[in-house]
Amino acid sequence: MKLLFENWRRFLKESKGEVSNELTEIAANTMSAMDVFRDEGGGNITEHEAGQYEYIMSLASSPTPEVVEKFSESLYAGKRAGFLSPYSIEELARMDLYLLDGQNAGFAIKDGDDIVSVHNNSELKGLGGEFMRKAKEVGGARLDHFDGFLTGLYKRYGFTDVYEIYQWDEQYKPEVWAYEPVDVMNPNTSVYADALEGLTYADPGALPNEEEGIVPSGWTQEEAVTINPNLKYNSYKHGRPDVIMRKL
């Protein structure tokens, strides 16, 4: 069942007050992945052959301390190192870690199938497609991100099933976030774009300022959610998009 939570209150209850930390983790992973894909000319899909790159690995079932340490150093070697909230060594040891041999670039699989920590702090370019290929090969089947640059890109890599959406709630805003404007009317940056297109007037900013039944991209009419299109437009415009959870 697909769900949209009006805010994070349910999540707050389930996570024992750690919503801000969870949002910070998603924000950090979003910004890190954006950096990886931006060096591919705006997120163009690129094909990579299996075996083109060699990885060193640490698996959650039998962690390799040396690789865990190298992965941590790799993840926080970039310009955002002091800006992102780091995973601890203990947290990384509970993930499957994949690091390009000799490079500060790689990704992790959390909880068996959740792709996180996609990063590239090396001099290599165009690694996004390779990381998506490899992540799916080793069991990665879901990921989460803030709506925006990664939306259309992840769809093109096969993550088309949006199974949950968490609407932005200022009370639980992430500790780190760039507040870059997001075009809610662009299907490559917003799960709401197609549904809102039929509600626009001459000015997209003049969307209805009252609650409307909206069907996010990939959902059915029976799964319609209620949002205020005008408020959503302005929220995205000021860099406050919703959290999107996707799976293959």
Topology:
Blueprint: E1 3-5, H1 9-14, H2 19-38, E2 55-58, H3 65-75, H4 89-93, E3 96-100, E4 105-110, E5 114-120, H5 128-137, E6 142-146, H6 149-156, E7 161-166, H7 193-197, E8 212-214, E9 225-227, H8 229-237, E10 243-247
Parallel strand pairs: 1-7
Antiparallel strand pairs: 2-3, 3-4, 4-5, 6-10, 7-10, 8-9
Descriptive tags:
four-stranded mixed β-sheet, alpha+beta, 248 residues, single chain, elongated
* Separate helix tally: 8
Proportion of residues in helical segments? 25-40%
> What general form does the structure show?
elongated
Give the overall pLDDT as a whole number. 87
Q: Provide the number of structural domains.
A: 2
Strand content: 15-25%
Distance between the termini: 15 Å
Reported for the largest beta sheet, the result is: 4 strands, mixed
Enumerate the strands of the largest sheet in spatial order, edge to edge or round the barrel. Answer: 1-7-10-6
Give, in order, the helices and strands: EHHEHHEEEHEHEHEEHE
From the alpha carbons, calculate the radius of gyration and give it in angstroms.
18 Å
- Would you identify the regions where 5 or more consecutive residues have pLDDT less than 50? none
State the total count of DSSP E strands: 10
Category from helices, strands and their pairing:
alpha+beta
